[in-house]
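Good day; I would like, with your permission, to put a structural problem before you. A protein sequence and the structure tokens that stand for its backbone fold form the material at issue. I would ask you to consider whether the tokens describe a fold that such a sequence might reasonably adopt. I set the record out below, with my sincere thanks for your time.
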Amino acid sequence: MKPQSNDLWSPTSNISNLANYSLSTLLGKGGFGKVVKAQHILTKEHFAIKMISKKPSKLTQSKIPTNNEVTILKKLNHDNIISYIDSFEDNSFLYIVTELCQEKNLYGKIKKSGKLKENEVKEILLQILSAVEYLHDNNIIHRDIKLENILLVSEGSNKIKLIDFGTATTLDKNHRVSGYCGSAFYISPEMLEGEYNEKIDIWSCGILAYVLSTGKWPYKERNTEDVLENILCSPFQINNDNCEGLSYDFVSLLKEMLRVKPQERISASDAIRHKWFEDDIKM
């Protein structure tokens, strides 16, 4: 198995499990590792393999809890959540094998189009909220819902899969957790203040829906520290100036999803049953 270009990923040697796959194109990379396209040599089926480094991050100087993602993925079975296939490891990396989605993520979709029509946003958001409802019903918080973590399954389709459970966690017996993680633009105010619950995912979904439908980011700042300070001092809110052109019912839902006080914020289950989705649910 010899890499042919810089876009191909070279496996480490002497890993029997990895030798069962023929690895090819680099699909993406982040702070802790890479995702590559792979074909199982025996079955000829195609998958994605996520390679997570066990070494401390250069940014945080701490190790990622590699086993946590596998533990959570094994529990999940939902049509809009990426399917777990297998996992194995060596001294340096954890390898997670999942189903392969052929298309790009939502960030790539709006980067090309600028923004989506409201009906498209409705179709996509309903699927995301369905996945989030399932997670929350199972006491799991994703903690990093963003455009880049929503994959489109195939070309010409708006069917999606929620991916990347590297920072996901389970709620404790008091249904509270703590710890800062995720991407700045999508972070809810309470995450920066201390303990929080599953409602942080709803805030992230609200921001995501706003960006999809307007093509605008919630904060003008681009520096992470400035964005976080803005979230604490003046969190994003829907008003007449920033939601022009959106339907009354959609604006109503966005306001419910982006309430600053988490106890007043709508749940995933109630969001799915909002009037904006009424026609879709009847279908």
The CA atoms of residues 152 and 158 lie 6 Å apart. Residues 106-282 form a domain with the Transferase(Phosphotransferase); domain 1 fold (CATH 1.10.510.10). The chain has nine helices and nine strands.
